[in-house]
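User: For my dataset I need records formatted as: sequence, then structure tokens, nothing else. Please produce one.
Assistant:
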Amino acid sequence: MKQRAYRSPVAVRWIGIVSALAFIVAGAASVLPVAYGSSQAGPSVFEVPATTKSFADVVEMVSPAVVAISISKQAAALPASAFPRHGGQGSPFDDFFDRFFDAPGMAPPNSSPVQALGSGFLVEKSGYIVTNNHVVDGADSIRVLFQDGRELEASLVGTDPKTDLALLKVETQDSLPALAFGDSDHARVGDWVLAIGNPFGLGGSATAGIISARGRDIRSGPYDDYLQIDAPINSGNSGGPVFNADGEVIGVNTAIYSPNGGNVGIGFAIPSKQVQTIVAELKTSGVVHRGWLGVQIQDIDTALAASLGLDESTGALIADVIADSPAAKSDLQIGDVIMQFGADKIASAKALSIAVANTDPAIKVPVKILRDGKNKTIQVKLGESELATANVSGGTGKSNAVGGDLGLGLSNLTDNERQQLGLPNDYPGVIIRKVDPSSSAASQGLRPGDVISRVGSTTVHNVAEASAAIGKAKKTGKSAALLVRRRDGQQYVSVAFS
């Protein structure tokens, strides 16, 4: 993940990105019955709270452990591209960045000092503080401002750009407050949450809202699994905590989506479960070591699930296995559906990515798979992920292949074509020559030049084998699952029979 520090008076990750936030639940002291469709009061399924508790008690309890963070550094002129993007070219947030970060005059002048402000919170009384990586990235000095007016110099313990987290440490003989983590897995859409931070450098400010979505992937990194928050948050809130009704931290503000430069009620927070894992490793070693499986995977949509004989669209489908990887050495195969990794049930490709990353490298993990309709458990000894290695990639099938019944014209794959396509000499498959524009294959995005190497779990080396496998698939279902390769990637795609 690239640098995410903001070079504005108030640092925050706009996504427009700035931060995510939240708010807290209030109990009802009493309720009044409300009757509809009648002039006479009576029993109703609707009940309206008569009074609502204030959030003041929670704010008073947690605020002393929420801090403002000020960084300073000397910076040369930065090109517009140095400002953080989320998802790269083609991201739905490109328009925002083009208008607000790539505009003329956004880069600071040569050698001008950069001051930036963000938020953070104490997680241990010994002085450990959590914030965002983009808040402190490249800082020459970091100062922490407490609610009671104290200001202390902080040292950087470690950072994890992939999740945008950083751990700081302050040294003092004074007593420090600390916050407790809650379980973000139990946070539900509709729960009230409270956020406290340092918007625009104004100091401790509280805002409230609800969790509006879970599991958001905004393409800011390989491990996005954000809580989406409906609450007013702004520049300077980055790194601040999101609390549940009990005053427990269930998230860390990291970004907002803003088409107009201000808060529009769509913010994103890193779940506390992920934060705790990262913080523990940063405290121990200053860096994060992640497990590496060595597979390319994809999500399973309804059509693909039917093609594979699955009752529901769950699990992660292996579309490719990297040579000499832990997966290859453990007998995981193309076409396997990973249903559980260790103790984690796998509902999607992203879920597997996070589960693998959160597992210590070089240990053996039981992996439950579905292969040819049968359940199987394979012991996999993980490796360690490297920044340049794309060990897991998600996505739903958008390519397809095979035979007249599928609207495809196929031919055998020649050695010359393998060489042109950069494929190994022994790579199996047939090549698509023609696609019927009215077919399911066309609607799925298949095109001439795509290579089909498998139909379901059957490897095909020529047109005859492909036709036989397609015919077999037609007898058992309404679609065929095709393993399609295009350039350097491959994935399964479900194509309906005509």
